[in-house]
Specification:
InterPro entries: Homeodomain-like_sf, HTH-type_TetR-like_transc_reg, HTH_TetR. It holds the Pfam family TetR_N. This is TetR/AcrR family transcriptional regulator. Keywords: DNA-binding, Transcription, Transcription regulation. The relative contact order is 0.10. The protein is mainly α and 186 residues long. It has nine helices and no strands. The chain has two domains: 50 residues, Arc Repressor Mutant, subunit A (Orthogonal Bundle), CATH 1.10.10; 124 residues, Tetracycline Repressor, domain 2 (Orthogonal Bundle). α1 packs across α2, α5 crosses α8 and α7 crosses α8. The mean pLDDT is 90.
């Protein structure tokens, strides 16, 4: 990737990425100049860090996916029973998704780095689904690939639920729906 950035350059990159997320969420066609203004930086500084809009979108994709991985790992999913791990991971992922709504809900740049991070995220999810099945949360004949796809869909829908913003409440809703559906409780 190259040499590490100085602390001030890292702050600039972080400010640009955070501003880009906010600005693009409001106006997906926003210019690099609008993003620079929102970051409190000059357009030249933004272009010094990101040669063009595509490079900025690629950096957004990588940054958001890396934050998802960090959120998953911070939940320490292997250190708890599957239900607890699933709740922790889901709540942490929803926190990240609420911050990176634009980047994680739009088709952003799919570089090899972003693809590798997505494969790691997906691997964590597969591992969690296998544990959930092994511990009896999912039926022994459940299609784990389908369960994983439903889980991802529930995460996407949860982030857009207008009346519930607390990640822990949303995580409970996602997990309850994944494990029990919407039918009546017996």
């Amino acid at each position: 990737m190259g040499r590490a950035l100085r602390a001030d350059a890292e702050r600039s990159v972080r400010a640009i990425l955070e501003a880009a997320e906010r600005v693009l969420a409001e106006d997906p066609s926003a210019s690099m100049e609008q993003i620079a203004e929102a970051a409190g930086l000059t357009r030249i500084t933004v272009h010094r860090r990101f040669a063009n809009r595509q490079a900025l979108l690629e950096a957004l994709a990588v940054s958001a996916k890396q934050q998802l991985i960090d959120a998953i790992e911070d939940a320490r999913p292997a250190a708890a029973p599957a239900l607890v791990a699933l709740h922790r991971v889901t709540a942490n992922v929803l926190r990240v998704k609420s911050t990176w709504r634009f980047t994680l809900s739009h088709a952003t740049a799919h570089t090899s780095a972003a693809a590798a991070l997505w494969a790691e995220i997906d691997g964590h999810t597969v591992d969690l689904m296998v544990r959930a099945q092994r511990e009896g949360l999912l039926g022994p004949d459940a299609d784990l690939d389908w369960a994983r796809q439903v889980y991802y869909a529930l995460l996407s829908e949860a982030i857009d639920k207008p009346d519930t913003q607390d990640p822990d409440d949303l995580a409970t809703l996602v997990i309850d729906t994944l494990l029990h559906g919407a039918g009546p409780r017996g």
